[in-house]
Design brief:
One of its GO terms (biological process) is synaptic vesicle budding from presynaptic endocytic zone membrane. The chain contains eleven helices and five strands. By secondary structure, it is mostly helical. It has two domains: 152 residues, P-loop containing nucleotide triphosphate hydrolases (Rossmann fold, 3-Layer(aba) Sandwich), CATH 3.40.50.300; 112 residues, Four Helix Bundle (Hemerythrin (Met), subunit A) (Up-down Bundle). It starts with a strand and ends with a helix.
Length: 367
């Protein structure tokens, strides 16, 4: 019997106490030593003639209140992590609930119901049957009468923390569990359908059946993927990298793609929308509609001076003649307006520079 970890592939662990220590050490390495969590699984493979062929993903229990270094939204983080695994149609859900807690309040069953409303993939496991109050039992639950599941419930009695600390042997624990079910009046009649060894067998059988059921859809999915890949391969079969026509075609395609990308970034119909900052056309839009008007508004002129300038311009054009007439001479109008328009030159050039810079950035992003 030996075990292997994915993070230290070269080493075979034959002492299972070492396996335990390595799990703790790797957990501390990934999450820190103060009850942190991580969605990255620790992969452990056990080779033994005494275990059945099963893949088990052990997920954390749902924490309601953060402790140690856990973030404030720990409950939602763990729920998201659990949903990632149990939402997959190909996985079976092992919903573990302690017997000394009301089944209606079970977080495990509640989450399983969300992703598997028909209960087709859910197997119920009831633990801590030995810790129930005297005079109470979980018979109705185990007989699948209270909250029925298609695949039913199995009761188990695990080692207590005291047993674990005292290094109680698994064989002794299994024997004690068997004795508990055979001697308990409420569970005696179904002792053969209870306990960890039966749970192992059921899981192995259920997994085999589940694989058999999900295999056809998986097969057809793979076949369609294979067909699309073969179609793609067909296009590259006669591919000759040195063929000049290929190079021309590739270059044209790249130029075309560049054009499309550039247009998308400017027009604003890109596939990837940036949610952190403005980019491309939106920035240019802001330059025109926010920066440029702001620069224009900043420009100041004194109306008194302007009136004086207009008066001088009119008088200078008339020279020695007496200033009469209803209309401002064209030359005076032009002289004054030109002087004002020149003031617009600087903000306009500034605007152009900003837009050019933005276009250069966009080109850089497209390339």
């Amino acid at each position: 019997e030996y075990a292997e970890f994915l993070h230290c592939k070269s080493k075979k662990f034959t002492d299972f106490d070492e396996v335990r220590q390595e799990i703790e050490a790797e957990t501390d390495r990934v999450t820190g030593t103060n009850k942190g969590i991580s969605p990255v699984p620790i992969n452990l493979r056990v080779y033994s003639p005494h275990v059945l062929n099963l893949t088990l993903i052990d997920l954390p229990g749902i924490t309601k209140v953060p402790v140690g270094d856990q973030p404030q939204d720990i409950e939602y983080q763990i729920k998201d992590m659990i949903l990632q695994f149990i939402s997959r149609e190909s996985s079976l859900i092992l919903a573990v609930t302690p017997a000394n807690m009301d089944l209606a309040n079970s977080d495990a069953l509640k989450m399983a119901k969300e992703v598997d409303p028909q209960g087709l993939r859910t197997i119920g496991v009831i633990t801590k049957l030995d810790l129930m109050d005297e005079g109470t039992d979980a018979r109705d639950v185990l007989e699948n009468k209270l909250l029925p599941l298609r695949r039913g419930y199995i009761g188990v009695v695990n080692r207590s923390q005291k047993d674990i600390d005292g290094k109680k042997d698994i064989r002794a624990a299994l024997a004690a569990e068997r004795k508990f079910f055979l001697s308990h009046p409420a569970y005696r009649h179904m002792a053969d359908r209870m306990g960890t060894p039966h749970l192992q067998k059921v899981l192995n059988q259920q997994l085999t059946n589940h694989i058999r059921e999900t295999l056809p859809s998986l097969r057809s999915k793979l076949q369609s993927q294979l067909l699309s890949l073969e179609k793609e391969v067909e296009e590259y079969k006669n591919f000759r990298p040195d063929d000049p026509t290929r190079k021309t075609k590739a270059l044209l395609q790249m130029v075309q793609q560049f054009g499309v990308d550039f247009e998308k970034r400017i027009e604003g119909s890109g596939d990837q929308v940036d949610t952190l900052e403005l980019s491309g056309g939106a920035r240019i839009n802001r330059i025109f509609h926010e920066r440029f008007p702001f620069e224009l508004v900043k420009m100041e002129f004194d109306e008194k001076d302007l009136r004086r300038e207009i008066s001088y311009a009119i008088k200078n054009i008339h020279g020695v003649r007496q200033v009469t007439g209803l209309f401002t001479p064209d030359l005076a109008f032009e002289a004054i307006v030109k002087k004002q328009v020149v003031k617009l030159k600087e903000p306009c050039l500034k605007c152009v520079d900003l837009v050019i810079q933005e276009l250069i950035n966009t080109v850089r992003q497209c390339t």
